[in-house]
Amino acid sequence: MKSTFKLAGNLALTLALAAAGIGAANAADKVKVGLMLPYTGTYAALGTAITNGFKQFVDENGGKLGGREVEYFTVDDESNPAKATENAKKLVSRDKVDVLVGTVHSGVALAMAKVARDTKTLMIVPNAGANDLTGPLCSPYVFRSSFSAWQPSYAMGEALAKKGIKNVATVTWKYSFGEESVAGFKEAFEKGGGKLVKEMTLPFPNVEFQPFLTEIASAKPDAVFVFFAGAGAAKFVADYAAAGLKNSIPLYGPGFLTDGNLGAMGGAGEGLLTTLHYADGLTNAKDAAFRTKYAQTYKLQPDVYAVQGYDAAQMYEAGLKAAGGDPEKKEDVIKGMESAKIDSPRGAFTLSKAHNPVQDIYMRQVKGDQNVMLEVVSKSLEDPARGCKM
Question: Is the pTM higher than 0.70?
Answer without folding.
Answer: yes
